[in-house]
Amino acid sequence: MENKLYKKTIVWNGDSICAGHKDTGNWATRIAEKNSMEYKNYAVGGGTIAEDLPLTQSGEKRHSVSETLDKMYKEFPDADYIIFDGGTNDADLLRSLMKNGETRLGSFDPSDFSGEYDRSTFCGALESLFYRSISYWTGKKIGYIVAQKMDDADPSKFDNRRLYFDKAVEICLKWGIPYIDLWKGCYLNPKLPSMYDPTKTSEQNRAENTGFYIDGQHLTARGYDFTADIIDSWLKTL
Predict the structure, then answer these.
(1) I need a surface site. Which of 8, 95, 112, 161 has the fewest CB within 10 A?
(2) What is the spatial distance between Cα 173 and Cα 146, in angstroms, rounded to a whole number?
(3) Count of C-beta atoms within a 10 Å radius of residue 198
């Protein structure tokens, strides 16, 4: 059967889930090697969809998927696949930030296709991201990935992350952007002992590679192997 991905060019942008780690790899490398693709992964740990967020703990400017879109287009104007992930850091950071008395989750109007959106909010930045991507890469394959289930000692973070992802799905549907929801669409779950051992350090879980999570959020090499196969199959349907 024809491999739709073979020899195509794919670019990625997102947060640490998309960026991966030198010891675990990531989706981009696995899928590119499997399908002989040219690729570039712009994702950076700690990255957000929204723009103008607080500096990282090390005092550096935080990576924004929205803000780096123009660079992606300048460097890969003929990309065949443009794939985004993100929302976890937005959910964790923006819930405590206010803009004009409102949280920076933002909102969206299903009938507004003007392109004039507030990129300092999650919803506005994601809308702008899709609006510009469709204009830049007309006729190419654009997609969004909702990351796998994540655990946290603060249960409110779990609910808030899913709130942001649900908004992202609504925005994907508005713009007709294909998405894959690993959170709801695969059985990875850090609450299952077979998938994550919280008694071990992240370094131990990463090195031993017996489970799917290193810290209840980020994936081991085994976790990336598992989810990369799912994403690979999804990409071939676009």
Answers:
(1) 112
(2) 13
(3) 14
Residue 17 structure tokens: 């889930």
CB crowding 126-151: b at 16 or more within 10 Å, else e: bbbbbbbbbebbeebbbbbbbbbbbb
Q: Which residues contact 29 (CB under 8 A, 6 or more apart)?
A: 20, 39, 41
Q: pLDDT tens digits, the chain, 238 residues: what are they?
A: 689 999 999 999 999 999 999 999 999 999 999 999 999 999 999 999 999 887 777 778 999 999 999 999 999 999 999 999 999 999 988 776 666 656 788 988 999 999 999 999 999 999 999 999 999 999 999 999 999 999 876 777 888 899 999 999 999 999 999 999 999 999 999 999 999 999 999 999 999 999 999 999 999 999 999 999 999 999 999 9
**DSSP at 6:** T
Report in angstroms the alpha-carbon separations of 47 from 9, 51, 67, 110.
23, 10, 11, 26
Distance CA(68)–CA(86), nearest Å, equals 13
